[in-house]
Specification:
The complex is a heterodimer of chains A (41) and B (521). Chain A is mainly alpha-helical and 41 residues long. Chain A contains one helix and no strands. Chain B is globular and about 65 Å long. Classes of the chains: A mainly alpha (41), B mainly alpha (521).
């Protein structure tokens, strides 16, 4: 039982949700100034 | 109602006034057709993120899916995984940037227009426009009904008047201010949603005694799972359903995959990518978008499941029994009973914001599809501001009539149906279109048509959740569905999307062997 939840699949679901939200923050921060102009021409 | 009607009315009117003022600011900034259709292609990253998120998350995501989590448990958290992983990261990184670049280069102003210009095929624009104009009113009608159901008891206005008022007030700023007004108001509404859901999570954890105590109490309630649900594979609120059981198929194929993947090719969301000035704006939008979605669906599913603990501790009943068997009533009942009065007001504004932000985006997408992609395609009037305003009014009226006429049983399925159809019809052609050097028009046409037809056949004749209320299979063949279990629980997207994808890939490869000339100059 982890954090009151007995099923690791549910724990994994929560972990991935929070992890992916953090990944979005990290991605946005890392690429904050990348992608100027570039309209694919 | 915990809060008196006068206070609620005053706050709702204040909220509406603020929305209209922000919409007016959008109207003032709208100088050209490009402003009206793609927000001048220079939206701020935070506005893109909040607009995308607020459009993505409708009332049904909070009330409907929150109620489903109360009924079926925390397994719905896997939908949040897909909402963030697919709906934000994959959508922005893999599709958003390419869509923005191609949209800029080809001066595309709507999703069907983008498909037309990528594939150099007016037929594709007609087909995509037609699918939008036919299917989007269903989804719009569902949002209208959800909003009217909220306004009716909150402000004490009868249902029909509530529905018409809701439709007209939202249409006012969409018609006059176009996409700039829509995105500005979305950002305002998204902020309210973020505040509302954050407070909801915090107060719920206080009510159940913290995360571990609440989850443990919910785990210990496993033997209270209703017999009917246990018989279909539900094992508890903190465990996954039995693999391959009817509930497992419903949770994984319909709720998680159907909605999680369906979001990728929704025309009203794809247009948001074309409003970015550069890829830098989209990178920055991801930073806001991921946490925003976590705080929407992640919180709704968690609070929904934990509401069982509250109801059991206070009334000895599980959530679905406390709500009289109505899944949609669980979240409002929990808010009214467990939350302080002031939060009831905040949550009601959260719901109104969720409904209006999605509704305004749908009005804009439908109206522009009608004018730019169907009626005016290839003509000068396709870019007429007045024509687009008329198009939005026409689609608003049609959606309102549909909302007043359609049976509730069909409307309740509209969100899942719309997202499923979009994914099956558009996703393979859209994905290949933005990535292939020489995308095949023939492959895109066949993929779109095959995806839409297979989706419809499975929806009307196999998937029990839609086939039963539609009644087409019953009328033609004298039985509810043509196939038996487990197929009746398998969502149409699981069947139609792979077929549409196979058609696209096979024909694209074939075309690559015979037509090496690139479609995009």
């Amino acid at each position: 039982m982890l954090f009151g939840i007995p099923d690791l699949q549910i724990v994994l679901g929560y972990g991935l949700s929070i992890g992916l939200a953090l990944a979005c923050i990290v991605y946005g921060w890392l690429y904050w100034n990348e992608g100027d102009g570039g309209n694919g021409s | 109602m915990a809060v008196n009607t006068l206070t609620m009315t005053a706050l709702v009117l204040l909220y509406l006034a603020a929305t209209l003022v922000i919409g007016y600011l959008g109207y003032r900034k709208t100088k050209s057709t490009e402003d009206y259709l793609v927000a001048g292609r220079c939206s701020h990253p935070v506005i893109i993120a909040l607009s995308y998120g607020a459009t993505f998350i409708s009332t049904s995501a909070i009330i409907g899916f929150g109620g489903q989590a109360a009924n079926l448990g925390m397994s719905l958290i896997w939908l949040t995984v897909l909402n963030i992983g697919v709906g934000i990261l994959l959508a922005f990184v893999l599709f958003g940037k390419k869509t923005r670049e191609i949209g800029h280069r080809l001066s595309a102003v709507t999703f069907p227009d983008l498909m037309c210009k990528i594939y150099k095929s007016p037929v594709l624009q007609y087909i995509a426009g037609f699918i939008i104009v036919i299917s989007m009113p269903l989804y719009t009608a569902a949002i209208l009904i959800g909003g009217a159901r909220f306004i009716e008891p909150t402000l004490g206005i009868d249902y029909t008047t509530s529905l018409i008022l809701f439709a007209v007030i939202t249409a006012v700023y969409v018609v006059f201010g176009g996409l700039i007004a829509v995105m500005y108001t979305d950002a305002f509404q998204g902020t309210i949603m973020l505040i509302g859901m954050t407070v909801l999570l915090a107060l719920t954890l206080v009510v159940v005694g913290g995360w571990t105590a609440g989850a443990t109490a919910l785990t210990n309630m496993a033997d209270l799972v209703p017999t009917a649900l246990a018989g279909q594979g539900m094992t508890g609120w903190t465990t996954m359903p039995e693999l391959g059981s009817p509930i497992w198929f419903t949770v994984i194929t319909t709720l998680v995959l159907g909605v999680g993947i369906g979001v990728l090719a929704q025309p009203q969301l794809v247009v948001r990518f074309m409003t970015a000035k550069d890829n830098k704006s989209l990178n920055r939008a991801i930073l806001v978008g991921g946490p925003f979605i976590l705080m929407m669906t992640g919180v709704a599913f968690t609070v929904g499941a934990l509401s069982n603990v509250y109801f059991y501790q206070t009334s000895g009943k599980i959530a679905i029994d406390a709500a009289g068997g109505n899944v949609d009533a669980i979240m409002p009942l929990f808010i009214n009973q467990a939350m302080p009065e002031i939060f009831v007001v905040i949550f009601m504004l959260t719901l109104l914001s969720a409904a209006m932000s999605t509704l305004s985006a749908l009005y804009h997408a439908m109206g522009t599809a009608l004018i730019c992609d169907l009626w005016g395609r290839g003509r000068e009037c396709a870019l007429s501001l007045k024509a687009h305003q008329a198009g939005i009014v026409i689609m608003m009226v049609l959606s309102t009539i549909l909302a007043l006429l359609m049976p509730i049983s069909i409307i309740a399925r509209a969100t899942v149906m719309f997202m499923g159809l979009c994914a099956c019809a558009f996703l393979p052609a859209f994905a290949v279109g933005v990535y292939a050097k020489a995308p095949s028009t023939k492959a895109a046409l066949w993929s779109m048509v095959t995806g839409a037809v297979v989706w419809f056949v499975w929806t009307a004749f196999v998937h029990a959740a839609e086939a039963k209320p539609l009644g087409l299979c019953q009328a033609l063949f004298g039985k509810v569905t043509l196939l038996g279990a487990p197929w009746t629980a398998v969502d149409p997207i699981v069947i139609a999307l792979p077929i549409s994808l196979i058609v696209m890939v096979v024909m694209q490869v074939q075309a690559g062997k015979t037509q090496p000339a690139p479609a995009i100059a």
